[in-house]
Design goal:
Layout: H1 2-17, H2 22-35, H3 39-72, H4 76-86, E1 91-95, E2 98-101, H5 102-118, E3 126-130, H6 135-146, E4 150-153, H7 160-169, E5 174-178, H8 182-188, E6 197-201, E7 214-215, H9 216-220
Parallel strand pairs: 3-4, 3-5, 5-6, 6-7
Antiparallel strand pairs: 1-2
Helix pairs in contact: 1-2, 5-6
Length: 227
């Protein structure tokens, strides 16, 4: 990568100096060839230039799209819905041996949104998400934003007083936590504000439960999958 950057930089200098004199152009071209590996650099360029060009094109296209969406004042849910309509069965997320399509992620997030509304959550409320990385995490974040609920993303490595402080600092009305993090929640449960609602997502591990926490997956089963 460093060699390619050097080569592109020096060739750019050569292009500029070409307007002045052919001698510096020849010297710098030869120097760049020697300093960047000679034939091996040319070999790398031949095999990677197409890939690098495609990557640069996609990155620039992404920047342009973000700029356009900002000018149009579109939210993330609005952009996501546009993609769902265009590519409902296209894979959106890969995770271990799972794959979620845009439609599946949309339906999951809609069920969560309806559940939160049924519980009385409204625009501006904060729900803390304390989970390890998995597709459900993305769906919950998206579901919250669809109804204006603020998802506070809590680092799943936090424990004890640091974890408790994060919940309090976010002024969370509820905490949705992954069942795999039940031990961490049990350790601080007695210090949590009494009016914070607790929801557990995922399979119960070793039979451990947090007292008073509702099983979110079960609560979402009968919720509509459209908004």
């Amino acid at each position: 990568m460093y060699a390619r950057v050097c080569l592109y930089t020096l060739l750019g200098c050569c292009w500029w100096l070409e307007l002045l004199s052919p001698a510096p152009l020849i010297c710098l071209a030869l120097l760049s060839y020697l300093l960047t590996g000679g034939n091996y650099t040319l070999y790398l360029l031949y095999h990677t230039l197409g890939r690098d060009a495609r990557g640069a094109y996609r990155y620039l296209r992404l920047l342009l799209m973000v700029y356009v969406y900002q000018k149009m004042d579109w939210t993330v849910p609005q952009v996501f819905q546009r993609t769902v309509k265009k590519h409902p069965e296209k894979v959106c997320l890969y995770f271990e041996d799972e794959s979620w399509t845009f439609r599946q992620l949309d339906e999951y997030s809609n069920r969560l949104a309806h559940f939160l509304l049924s519980c009385g959550f409204k625009h501006g409320d904060t729900v803390a998400l304390f989970m390890e990385n998995k597709p459900e995490y993305v769906g919950m974040w998206l579901g919250c934003t669809k109804i204006g609920v603020v998802p506070a993303l809590i680092n799943f490595n936090l424990r004890g007083s640091s974890l408790l402080h994060s919940f309090n600092a976010a002024s969370s009305s509820a905490v949705i936590f992954g069942a795999e993090l039940t031990p961490a929640m049990r350790d601080i449960q007695s210090d949590l504000e009494k009016d914070i609602s607790l929801y557990s997502s995922g399979k119960v591990v070793n039979g451990l439960r947090v007292d008073g926490a509702k099983l979110l997956d079960k609560e979402m089963e009968n919720q509509p999958d459209t908004i």
